[in-house]
Amino acid sequence: MTPRPSRRAFLASGGTLGGVLAARAASSPSPGGFRYCLNFATLQGYRAGVVEMVEASAKAGYQAIEPWVSGIDAYAGQGGSLADLRRRIADLGLTVESAIAFPQWIVDDPGKRAVGMEQARRDLATVAQIGGQRMAAPPAGANTGAALGWTEMADRYRALLELGDQAGVVPELEFWGTSVNLRQLAQAVFVAMQTGHPKACVLADVFHLYKGQSAFEGLRMLSSQAVQVVHMNDYPATPPRETITDRDRVYPGDGVAPLKQILGDLARINPSAVLSLELFNPAYWKATPLETARTGLAKMKQAVEAAVGSG
User: Which of 163, 171, 166 is nearest to 188 (CA)?
Assistant: First the structure.
């Protein structure tokens, strides 16, 4: 693992933070109207704190961030103020479009599910305190083992959405292509629809669409309510689908995913969707954090321009 850099080293090669807002104001408009977001998994190999990642996101030119709740908790556990973090994020012109957490809200065991729901309550409250709008809700704890009933999953997602109503944060139903449950886009859409909740939505991911053998064309059948955030990445031709892992994700445009189709369909159903760069590729951590973040943003914009043009 790459040693944790100092804050100065982490933010090196990009000028001072005083120039961040000016640089962001001078950046080109978002092709297609999409909002560009950085999922902090992309920089996890640098083992930086949440403040450093927030500042790196702003310096790289992103409009939004998708932090991990574990990183926010670590910051708070070291005496950091969530109110201060919220102000810092806002002062840098960023929004918290989503966040990543793994409470076991969906599992069959009632005791474990109760613990998971209590964890979800805390996580949603944490996200709300930094101004977050949404939080991922993957099938944590139920990605192996027995298959769950779809209506039971819908009832459990409905309960999670009601917790989200209390916190003012929307849980996004995330499907994992590696999971026994909620493996495909169609499954997640059914579960979300079956809740009958007005804020139900799904969190799509290019890698998981491929890994779970979802039909990419399924996106064009959805609405702007159904799909608000998409995890952006790409995948190479090898290794094959059966053995490819998160570590093999590559920058958008550097693989073989049908990004032109995906982004074109997304632009039609939700032209203001959030594209959140989520990578786990250790090869990218050999560059500086800012180089990794900036390269990812440039690659996303290039992919969008190829799909929908520049205006």
Answer: 171
